[in-house]
Every structure is written in C-alpha cells, then in structure tokens.
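Internal QA ticket QA-208
Title: Verify multi-chain structure generation after dependency bump
Assignee: T.L.

Test input:
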Amino acid sequence: MDARLRRVNKEISDCKNDKTSQIKIELFDESPFHLKGSFPGPEGTPYEGGLFEVDIVIPDSYPFQPVKMKFITKVYHPNVSSASGAICLDILKDAWSPVLTLKSTLISLQSLLCSPEPNDPQDAEVAKHYMTSKSSFEETATYWTQIYAGGPGPKEKKGKGVGGKGVQDEVAIAGLERAHVDRFETLGFERSKVIDALRRLNYRGPNIAQITDDRVVEELLK
Amino acid sequence: MGSDYEYSDDDGEYYDDEEMFDGTQDEGDDVDMDNFGDDFKVAGKGKRKSYEVDYDSLSQQAVEKLMQRDVDHICGIFGVDTDTANLLLRHMKWNKERLIEKFMDNATSVLVAAGVAAPEPASPPAPVRTHNNSAPNSSTTRRPTTRGSKLLSLASGSKSAKSPPSTPKPMQRQLSKKQDEPFVCQICFNDAPDLQTLSLGCDHAFCTECWTDYIVSKIRDESEHSIRCMAEGCALVAPDSFIRSVLLPETGADPEKQEFNEKTWSRLQELFVRHFVGCNSSLKFCPYPSCTNTVSCPSAASKSSLTTIVPTVSCGARGIGNSAQDPAQSQQASLGLQGKEHKFCFGCDIESDHRPVICGVARMWLKKCRDDSETANWIKSNTKECSACQSTIEKNGGCNHMTCKKCKHEFCWVCMGPWSEHGTAWYSCNRFDEKTGVDARDAQSRSRASLERYLHYYNRWANHEQSAKLSLDLYAKTEKKMEEMQITSALTWIEVQFMKKAVEEVDKCRMTLKWTYAMAYYLAKGNEKELFEDNQRDLEKAVEDLSELLESQIEAEQIPTLRQQVTNKTVYVQKRNEIVLEDTANGFLEGRWRWNVPVPGFDDPVETA
Ligand SMILES: [Zn+2]
Ligand SMILES: [Zn+2]
Ligand SMILES: [Zn+2]
Ligand SMILES: [Zn+2]
Ligand SMILES: [Zn+2]
Ligand SMILES: [Zn+2]
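Actual output:
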C-alpha cells in the first residue's frame, strides 16, 4: 500500500482511539487527504468555550513536506488571517519535521492560540490591535469566539459591544468603540466606511490620542 | 560577505586575461559563416571595445573544480574530511577567510551551527516555537547523542591539540534488532523485523525508504541542498556521502527508480553549484532554461561598477534545451530564436542586452513604463488609421515606412507624419521638441506636456520593441526569400547569407535603439544629449533604410544589385550601431552623462531654469 495512505490512515485511527484527546480528525468526504480537524479553545484565553475547525490538506509528498492547514472557523488572532484563516506557524513551513503528525500539529495550533507571536504576524491589523491594547484585543477575540466558534461571550463585562443573539455587531467585530464610530458617522460618512477606516488606522487605546480627526477624514476620503 | 572574497591564492587559471572569452565572437557567428562573415567586419578584431566587458564562461564541472579547491584547502587546514569541509563552507556561504577565523575562534560553535555536530551533551533538541505540549512520539525517538558528543570533544580540542580531529563519521547503517525493544519507524510506522534503518551522528534512526523519500522530496520539491535530520528540532545536516549512499546504493534497486535517483543526485550537484555561484558576486549562473553554465565577470562584481559599465555577457552556449545544439538542426534553427546565444546582463535580470543604458536607469525606465501603462496603453495598439483615408492599417513588418494599401499614402508609423518629410528633409522623428506647447503659467498644460514628453519616448521605445518581436516573422520571410534566390539565381547557400546577416543586424540595432530612448528620456538637456540624439537619429535612419530594403519585392535580375545594396547598408548600420554603443560607453567611463532625475551613483541633477 502507498506509504502516505498507510500513514494517514494510521494517524486518523490513532486519533479516534485516543479517548482522552480533545483533538478530533474527520473526513470531509471519501478522501483521506482532505480532512477536518477540530479542537476546543484553550482555557484561560479569549478562545475558551469555542470550537475551532481546521481545514487539512495532505500534500502528495506528505510527511516529507508539511501538511497544509488553515482555520475554517474565523479567529481573531495575530498569527491567523482574519479574512482567510491562513496560519503563520513555523512548523507548517521550514521547521516542519516528518515525525510531526496531524494530531501534534493541531495541538500546536491550539497552543498557538495561548501564545500569540505578534512580531511574526499573519494579520498585521490584528497584530497592531494586540500591541496597542491587549484588553481591547481580548474583548474582540472573545466576541469573535462567541459569534463564530460558539463561545459563551464576555463574562458580565459592561455588556457593551455585544448585540442580541443572532445580531452581529460590526463595531465589536472590528474591535472598535461605538462612540468613535458614531462620532464620524455624524459627519456624514457611511457607517461601514467609518468602521473600515478606523480599523485600518488602529483607532484604539492610546493610539487614539495620536490620530487627529483630520487624519481620519483623510482616510475616509480615500 | 562574499563581495571581497577571492577564490584562492594560487588561482589565476580562470581569470587570466589572455584566455578571456572574446566578446567579439558574436560577430563571427556560426562556423559555417566564417568565410562569409569577413565582408562585414567593421573594425579589426581583437581588442575589447569600450561597450564590452571581460568575462569568462565556466561549465558546471569547472565551477565544481573551484569548489573542490576550497574544500581541499579547508580539509588541509582543519584536518576534516570532505563531507565536513563542504558543510562548513556551505554554512559560511563559501567565505573561506571568515570560516577559518571563526573556526579558530570556536570550532565547536561553527560545527554545531553548520549542522555537522549536535549541540552540547545530550541536551534535548531546541523546542520548536509553540510546540511545548505536542508530539508525544518525538520523545521516543530521542536517544543519547553519544556520537555527537564524542565528535564535539574532538572538535573543540582541535584548537590546541597537535593531532587533527578524526573526521566525524556521521552516518550509521544498522539493523534495528540490536536493541531489546522492536524498532518502529516513526515516519511510516513500519515495524518489520528486518527493517533497514539509517541515522546521522545524532542517532535519530528512520527506515531507509523514508530517508530516500525525504531526500528526494527536499531536492525535487524544494530545490533544497541543505537536508536536515528528519527528527523534530534536530539541526544535523546530512553530509554528501550520506545522501549519495541513500540515493545511489551499491545494491541496485529497480532500474527505473535508479535512474530517477541518479537524476535527483545530479540535480543536487547543480543546486550545490548554484549555491556556490550565488555566494560569489563575481559569478552568475546562466538564466537560460536547463543551461548549467556560469559566467565569471569580476569587473562587474560590485554595485558601483554598474554606474560605468553595462556588463552584457554570454555563457557560450546556444539554443534552448539540448536539441538546438544538435548540428543536424542548426542550419534551420540558426535563423530563429532557437539558435540564439545565451546572452544576459550580469548586473541585473531585466533584459538580456540593454546596452547602451546602465542597469539602474533601465530599471527606472521599466518601472515608469509599468506605472504609466494605463495612460500609455493606447499606443501599444498594433493597428492605426491611415492619416489620409482613415482605413485601418496593421503593422506586420519591422519597417516604419507605411504605405496605405487603399490610398497609397506613405507615412511614418511612429509619428504618423508623411514619409516624404522623413526621407529627404531628414529624420526629425527621434527628437521631442520640448519647446512646443508648453505654457509655463498653465499647470495643466505643463502636466500634459510632461505626459506627452514621456509618451514621445515611450512610443519610440515600444515601437522598436514591437518591431523586434515582429522580426521573428521577418526571419521566416527572409528564409523563404533566400530559398527563392537560390532557385532563381546562380547564388549558392553561402552567397545568400547576406540576407540573414542583415536581419540579424536590424534586430540587434532595434534593441540598441529601444534602450537609447530610455536613456534619452532621463538625459539632462544640453550639448551631450543633443550629440547622443544625433547618433541615435543616424542609427535609426540607417536601420529603417535597411529594414525597408529587406521587405521590398525581389526580382530575379536585381538580385546582384540587391546583394550589393544590402551588404553595404548592413555594414553601414553596423558602423552606426558601434558609434552609439561606443560613444555611450565612453561617456559612462568618462562620467560625461548627466541626468534630469536623481540616479544612484551619480551627482544629483542641477536645476536649470
Ligand atoms: Zn520509515
Ligand atoms: Zn537527528
Ligand atoms: Zn547558458
Ligand atoms: Zn543590466
Ligand atoms: Zn490610406
Ligand atoms: Zn516619424
């Protein structure tokens, strides 16, 4: 039998038989080379309570070339693209070793959620948010966990930002303050444009003092 | 850095000026052209012209010899084996002096960093980032790194010890059954009792088959020559003898696989050579597909040299792939692209031959063309309307002298003006009259003038590029004409080659002309620029004349006259081209050229009111 197939099959069945593991690997359809992995968000992080799904593609020369993984679930994290779910992690690139497995790689993703590396970002805007204000970043990440990963939502915190069930709050998704968005909206700009501009400018925390209203208007007129 | 790095003290063989590949060889072309080519010699052969650089062409074997010399040198000094010397040199980017310095300072750390030896005793491999709680099976592959630490003690002692360190033997072939627990390959999970395994000095054992697949994948999928141990976090690098023993085992595998692996091995040798060449600024690998030659051009090794020379070089080979060099095909192939020599610029990757303009300015121009492509798009169009009757005319040859099929109006493709003004009253088409239409007080018209100025140069630039592309058609047409001539006249094959030579010359000169427009666009106003544009205009006129002659109808009785005319004009075009190239190159050497924009390596433009 094809060595790659033998190895992948063994990895899948090992993972199934491990009842203590939180890591799950399932087939999408018939192919053992396109899989769906999932794991719970780590405790004590903004991702706690969420379930994170990962798209797994096994390349032809696996395990000698790294497995391809990206998040299916939207994640607010400096090393994960907020748009595509692409992941920046060394073991998925040049630090890959053929002894690593799908399971061990998924565990690495789980631990990546515990320890972001904003200096080696996949999503520059999210990384800037993280560097500017960790608490504001965590609020947004928690909100994303709630609306995209089925998380419980913020633990009785001011209750702001979170809309009713099913209603997604664009301001909270962008990690911004409602008051700021409202203020520029009253100048006559479209709300979605204001949100985009403020997000691009990283209009958060101590940064707000650095950004003049003129600068925001300039960005809005682009 | 590799910039000031020389091959070795006893060198000289490869850089001997007398043996230099003579750049004028491209004048002579094929062997079978020799007796004919003499008609076209402009200047005496021999001395290098000011627009040429000294360079040397090296085969892959010649470069391998240079590498081997460095390896032998290191082996001799450090008392290590070839494998180790190779890994050390590759790690230090072939900077031998720095390697010796570092090795003398701390042999252990160099050996570890180069992946020859494992780090200090039996410490677990450095954990991969964000990988703290993972990979339960990686611990089972960890074994005490006895061999590694033994090597280390020897290596670190080499500083003071009289006897050189024994060469490390970082390879082990073993049968797994020697240990009490049964061996399971941690990659393929094979646990067959007779499983053959291999490990580097670190003792991370994996089955032979996994090693083979891994090495093949690294070389073929990643073009990687530095192949690390497969264990997670282990930084040992597989030495050449190990890779060789895996890919080319003595006990023959099935022939198909063996051939595949042999190809992989030779691909690896090429990767080694490419890496070596990339580490040395006076070497460059030939960019033509499937060519493995290298060009050595020390005079263009530094960035600053590129402000005074345009290092156009050729690796010595011709054609694309191996087929074009087949002598049976060469007669056919020599006409078209196929037989072209591997010409390239040593200083940049933008175009094979952008003489007379230097790399930096050529790059600047191409960037401008890219940025302004939207506005300039309309000119790229391959069709225009006749200025007299408005019927659509398609350009289908290299010549700018257009004759409308419908109304017989003759005009210039570039400026759309009547051709009569060009032919007799001279060729004012190459020079943009900057005085016209500029209203200094009107900002809008000024910006329009600047766009028009750009378009003037771009238009002519693009036209010559277009014509050169169309000259492939011209090649084909000319070939047909040459065949006809042989039938309708008494001329031999050799005697009709003047047509081919003329097409080649037109092609070549259009390239020169093309780049003169990039140069002229950036040249500061003044006498120098006017002289430059005078030379440009003379060449352009000569090229258009010859080009037109080539596209004219051939009547059998006129062939002897035509032959004389074409030959004369070809010589003249060649001469004009020489003048443009020579004068521009001299100008760079003398520091004569001034630009209207800042160019790195030149004085900033002086503001002229
Ligand atoms: Zn194996
Ligand atoms: Zn190892
Ligand atoms: Zn070549
Ligand atoms: Zn160049
Ligand atoms: Zn017409
Ligand atoms: Zn014209």
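Spot checks passed. The interface with chain A takes residues 128-138, 141, 186-189, 206, 209-210, 213-214, 216-218, 221-222, 230-234 of chain B (CB under 8 Å).
Status: verified.
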